[in-house]
Amino acid sequence: MNLDSLFLSLRLAATVAILLLVIAMPLAYWLAFSRWRGKFFLESIVALPLVLPPTVLGFYALIALGPRGPIGQVWQSLFGHRLAFTFTGLVLASLVYSLPFAVQPLIASFESLDRRLLDASSVLGAGRVRTFLRVILPLSWSGLVTALVLSFAHTLGEFGVVLMVGGNLPGITRTVSIDIYDRAQALDYSGAHHVALLLLLISFVVLSLVYAINRRVWSPWTVR
What does pTM read for this prediction? Predict the structure, then answer.
């Protein structure tokens, strides 16, 4: 079994999950605590990948990242090479595709906090940054892990977006989902089965971790 596509997918999923956690935390914090009535527009934009077909999202990502697209033109002028059909292009497209899987668990976790704790922190003189680091983050541990794991799992199994933006370049953009599709198309059902089974097991372990944490089976702050 050729594991290059699996390792590429794991690398892509890990990169996207880490970057999304950094991007999603301030965004989720603002959406959870902002009183602006128009924030539902931003919430709708964040949740859009949940309802859009991956090929639609991938098509517009390809347009934006292509040599004539706004992002692609800027990238090529700065670095001298194209952005579409590269690993970096896959990362950027996957950030948009998996964004709601990182933002929404964090919003739910932040909104479930007891506001009296935040008020007490403010009364004691702690600023917003210190309150976030010392109060909100420790109490939102399960939401953080859920966001990280779900965005990792979602990126690991994506197909339509990576195919549109990255194509099928061995060692560069051929992810494990595309590899399974190629094997099935070539009637190599045995090879497709082995790769698909491995991906199934990884996904099961990842989701089991999420449910275990949400049910307090494991947490660094669990009281026994």
Answer: 0.85
Spatial distance between the Cα atoms of 121 and 131, rounded to a whole number of angstroms: 6
Domains and CATH numbers, the chain: 4-33+51-214 (1.10.3720.10)
At position 198, the amino acid (one-letter code) is: L
Please report the pLDDT score of residue 137 as a whole number: 85
User: pLDDT digit string (tens) for 52-84?
Assistant: 899 899 999 999 998 889 999 999 888 888 898
Cβ pair 57, 97 in contact under 8 A = yes
Dihedral angle at the C-alpha atoms of 104, 159, 168, 164, nearest 10 degrees?
A: -70
Q: Are 93 and 162 in contact (CB under 8 A)?
A: yes
Q: Could you identify the residue written with the tokens 């976790």?
A: 109
**Positive or negative: CA dihedral 54, 57, 59, 62:** negative
User: Which residue has tokens 């339509």?
Assistant: 160
The pLDDT tens digits for 8-54 are: 999 999 999 999 999 999 999 999 888 888 888 999 999 999 998 99
Given phi > 0 = left and psi -120 to 50 = alpha, else beta, which region is 185? alpha
CA distance 97 to 22: 16
Structure-block tokens of residue 199: 């991906």
